[in-house]
Specification:
Number of strands: 0
Mean pLDDT: 91
Radius of gyration: 12 Å
Shape: globular
Order of helices and strands: HHH
Helix content: over 70%
Strand content: under 5%
Length: 70
């Protein structure tokens, strides 16, 4: 696992933890992950971790539309 994969994995894990304890922070969590995604797109647009991050953001949107994240 390279450094970028570790960063994405940790960002996702941290986001899940935060949203389980404080779901009202969804907008801030989403903004942080989108910033990470945008930075990765600029620096390493073909990295496989980008797809994992993109899928997590989609999942986050689906969960948010269904109510509180647990």
């Amino acid at each position: 696992m390279d450094g970028i994969e570790q960063i994405v994995k940790r960002a996702i894990a941290y986001t899940v933890t935060v949203l389980q304890t404080a779901p009202e922070h969804l907008d801030a969590a989403r903004a942080g992950l989108e910033c990470l995604r945008n930075n990765l797109l600029l620096g390493v647009p073909d990295h496989p971790a980008l797809e994992r991050l993109r899928l997590f953001l989609v999942e986050l949107e689906l969960r948010a539309s269904q109510g509180p994240i647990h």
